[in-house]
Amino acid sequence: MACDDNYAMHCAVTIASVVENVSKNCFLHFYVMSSSLSLKNKKRLEKSLSRAAGEADIRFVDVKKNMFSNCPVRSDFHLTVETYFRLKMASFFSELDKILYLDSDVVVSGDISELWNMNIDGAYLACVPNLYSNRYKKIFSEYVQFDETFQYYNAGVMLVNLAKWREDSIESAFFEYIQNYGDTLLYADQDVLNCVINRNIIYLEDIWNAQFLGYNTIPDNAKVIHFISGSKPWNTYLNVPEYRLYYKYLKKTDWRPVIPCMKLKLFVKSRLSSLHNLASLMKINLFYSQKRFFVWGASSFMEKLLSEYPAGFFKIDGFIDSDEQRQGKLFCGCKIYSPDEISGLHPDIVVSGVVNNPNVENIIESTVKNSGASLIKGFFVKQR
């Protein structure tokens, strides 16, 4: 695993969930990589592990951050430089031939030894395809030759053949790719992994990395739940089983006392966010009813927001979205248009439905500017 002080509590939750559900005849060795984890949080992680009813130990691997000085991290994503540490696992754990990597934003609800015991001889790793895998494959096909069987995978849960990484000098290939294509990376080291290791992969069932966005459906028998969006159980109030599972294991850690205050704070934030969004929707009817009004981004966030009100209750002339597969279809009762069609739509107002992503909003702004319409950012806010 890898974490900093901001993720120490969530790392403890992952550890507690692994220990709780693993087969009783297993002894677990946890390795936590970090460049800045405080002594206080190291002790809290040790205490959390001692509270868990299982045979396990923990070792902290102190990493020098300057080893990753050339690794770009986008400021608008929930990522830190620690995410790149897994690229050097073959060096950090030279005594091991196989390792299981887990992100610190996962909760394990099944026996992880079932995954560990899988035979990965001849493969570089075993992993689960990422949601919307083909979209990311298309983005990087300009730089890398992918075959038809390749699927862009999520790097949050990986069973890694370290011996094969060393044998084929994979680590050097990672940093050579960063040197050449660092400015193309969207999801940091996950992109590097996919572009360098795109063959000899074992694809797992999605139960081993059930990627949860906060609203989508995951398998009932999921063994690993991965909170992949910016909305996490600790920053978003949602009364869903997946988030409740996080708090179940948080109670088993040294951070247990923070739970009541944490939940109250998130509940208040969610109510304020809901009021803001309701006021924004009312503004459409009150001030923009005579205007040509479009929302950029036929997102699940917008779908969830509008589903709370009767169809047609708010006047929206259409949605604009860059996803070619969605263009021309209906979304929340309105047609989805391509960005190339903006000028012909003659919009007066375009609202960004892409929330908390300044880079995307800047792209939207430059496109809308040429159409003569006004762009409103910050019109909607996420419930966090």
Describe the structure.
The protein starts with 7 loop residues before the first helix and ends in an 8-residue tail after the last strand. Helix content is 34%, strand content 17%. α1 (8-21) runs parallel beside α2 (39-51) and α7 crosses α8 (188-196). β12 and β13 form a beta hairpin. The strands form four sheets. A six-stranded mixed beta sheet has the order 12-13-11-10-14-15, covered by helices on one side. By secondary structure, the chain is an alpha/beta fold. The protein has helices spanning 8-21, 39-51, 89-92, 113-116, 133-140, 162-167, 170-181, 188-196, 241-250, 259-287, 300-306, 342-345, 358-369, and strands at residues 28-34, 56-62, 98-102, 106-108, 125-129, 153-161, 201-203, 210-212, 224-227, 293-296, 318-320, 330-331, 334-337, 349-352, 374-376. It folds into two domains: 5-254, Spore Coat Polysaccharide Biosynthesis Protein SpsA, Chain A (Alpha-Beta Complex); 266-376, Rossmann fold.
Q: Report the CATH C-level class of the largest domain.
A: Alpha Beta
The total beta strand count reads 15
Query: What fold name stands as the CATH topology of the largest domain?
Result: Spore Coat Polysaccharide Biosynthesis Protein SpsA, Chain A
* CATH homologous superfamily annotation of the largest domain: Spore Coat Polysaccharide Biosynthesis Protein SpsA, Chain A
Share of residues in strands? 15-25%
Overall average residue pLDDT = 85
Into how many domains do the coordinates divide? Answer: 2
Low-confidence stretches: none
